[in-house]
Amino acid sequence: MIRVAVVGAAGRMGSTVCQAVRDDPDTELVAEVDAHDSLEAVLDAGADVAVEFTLPDSVKRNTTWLLERGVHTVVGATGLTDEDLKQLDDLTGPANLFVAPNFAVGAVLMMRFAEQAARHFPDVEITELHHPGKVDAPSGTAQRTASLIAQARRGEPLRSDEHAARGQLVDGVPVHSVRLPGLVACQEVVFGGTGQTLTLRHDSIDRSSFMPGVLLAVKRVATLPGLTVGLEHLL
Ligand code: NAD
Question: How many angstroms does the Cα of residue 194 sit away from the middle of ligand 1?
């Protein structure tokens, strides 16, 4: 039985993770920590793994604290930069760190397909659509998709104009952010070619879409030394 603490437990994602951990016969929910609680509760409860689903301004501080105390940590909150990840990687050793910008298998496949299509289409734009409570933009998934597209071009230029008012350029890929009630998390990657377009779209219509990925990471993190980024490494 894996003893799990959830940090950000009162949030939209955190509360869904708590329920998923309770429902899984291989995991036990031993601590629920939110903004006004002490992280000491994670240690007091003897958690094997902590799941971090807070917000961009607290995720690095919490993850640092957990790794320094030897708690394997699964991070779903967005906002960690490459530099942050490097610093957190240096703290691994006694404990491992798993980070995924998106725990939905469909979104991971969308990113993989976008990487493949990018080799054939130099024109591409991303639109990510989320609920209005999402504080950061562009989303972690959109940033990761843009980076994968740019890497897949292997130095070949992307064709994008620089109308920043429409969104933001991420690694040269224009990314647009929509925040509307009714949405959970969607992303569209549109490639344009001569006389054709290719659209990849993924919709998380419910937060349950992320739970199999989160539980998989919880069960595997102890066997993945150091830092691992991306659910694709577990599939
Ligand atoms: P939310 O605002 O509903 O929940 C965040 C929770 O964190 C709140 O309950 C808040 O009180 C708590 N919190 C804030 N600071 C804290 C601290 N220092 N210590 C403990 N708890 C603290 O947000 P949400 O919709 O649940 O999203 C949480 C994060 O997960 C966001 O960064 C979002 O982008 C990300 N997200 C990731 C995935 C993924 O698959 N990786 C999917 C959806 C959302």
Answer: 42
| CB 138 less than 6 A from any atom of ligand 1 | no
Q: Evaluate the omega torsion of the peptide bond into residue 94 and state whether it is cis, within 30 degrees of 0.
A: no
Q: Does the beta carbon of 53 sit less than 6 angstroms from any atom of ligand 1? A: yes
pTM above 0.85, yes or no: yes
Encode pLDDT of 56-98 as tens digits: 999 999 999 999 999 999 999 999 999 999 999 999 999 999 9
Q: Is the CB of 8 under 6 A from ligand 1?
A: yes
Q: 179-211, pLDDT tens digit by residue?
A: 877 889 999 999 999 999 999 999 999 999 999
